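dude i think i finally got it to work??
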Amino acid sequence: MSDLLERGSAWLASTQKSSISQTVTYNRGPDSVAVAATIGTTHQEMIDDHGRVFEIDARDFLIDKNDLKLNAAEITPERGDTITQGSHVYEVTSSGAEPPWRWSDRHHSRRRIHTQAKG
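look at this
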């Protein structure tokens, strides 16, 4: 039996998916899949090797784990994959040694995928 927080998290994810998500296309090489994604952003401040501070704003796509499948197999986002939203293409990436995605909730039902506008 799930706990109250897990049920609440599932309800929120379902409500976001049905109310504010957009259909995007997740691409890896020649393979792609249309998925519902909630759009978000991540703001980070980084310090380079010379001590200069710079800011990075990434577009994030929150996608249900069970929806992210290519050729019927669940996949994990990788650097270099792309997400197409309308006429805009975003490359899956991250800053430094950070992974290009993280779990959006403690129940590991949605991935928050970090991207940057491509070209």
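The chain has a mean pLDDT of 87.
im so relieved honestly
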